[in-house]
Design brief:
By secondary structure, the protein is mainly α. It is about 65% helix and about 10% strand. The chain is elongated and about 65 Å long.
């Protein structure tokens, strides 16, 4: 039985595709990922084409993109010359790989651009002060986020899980204690 044959699996694949579009990921790419994530065995490209009703070129492009994110990998199945694919099923590992790739593709170029602008604006006396101040603040903010990400990404998985479960309660460890009035 194909994964997509179960109604809840099909609903998940369709929903994941829809959510992908909200996250800036092509619907087909997200559906391929969902199908592979739910599959209990390696799947070859033609099977993905059949199960999702996508063009072979879309599947090929989607698989390359997912491999670029490091959340899908090509595997060999003994006795079959075709390439087969499996998705990362460790959710933390998947999250960390996606975050790393998105940072590399989206945040790092923006940070480099903001650094360049900040440097130019520092010397440009014709620039309106509010423009200089806002771009400088944005550069500092994005840089701080990047530094935070680099520190968090190397934490052991159990520590990350604990931090996530603590949620807002972690603030009591970093918030200044109020002094008793007297």
């Amino acid at each position: 039985m194909a994964v997509i044959d179960h109604p809840d699996a099909k609903a998940f694949v369709l929903h994941w595709g829809e959510m992908g579009t909200h996250w800036g990921v092509n619907r087909s790419v997200s559906q391929i990922h969902a199908l592979l994530y739910l599959s209990d065995r390696p799947v070859h490209a033609e099977e993905i084409v059949e199960q999702l009703g996508l063009a072979r070129s879309n599947v090929s492009t989607g698989l390359k993109e997912l491999q670029g994110y490091g959340i899908v990998r090509r595997v060999h199945v003994e006795g079959d010359r075709r390439d087969h694919f499996v998705a990362e099923t460790d959710l933390w590992e998947m999250l960390m790989r996606i975050a790393a790739e998105r940072k590399k593709r989206e945040i790092d170029p923006t940070l480099a651009f903001l650094a360049e602008l900040t440097s130019r604006l520092k010397e440009d006396r014709t620039a309106p002060p509010h423009v200089r101040e806002r771009i400088t603040r944005l550069h500092e903010f994005v840089s701080t986020l990047g530094t935070w990400y680099e520190q968090v990404r190397v934490l052991p998985k159990p520590t990350l899980v604990t931090l996530m479960k603590l949620g807002g309660r972690v603030a009591r460890f970093v918030s200044p204690r109020s002094k008793p009035s007297g």
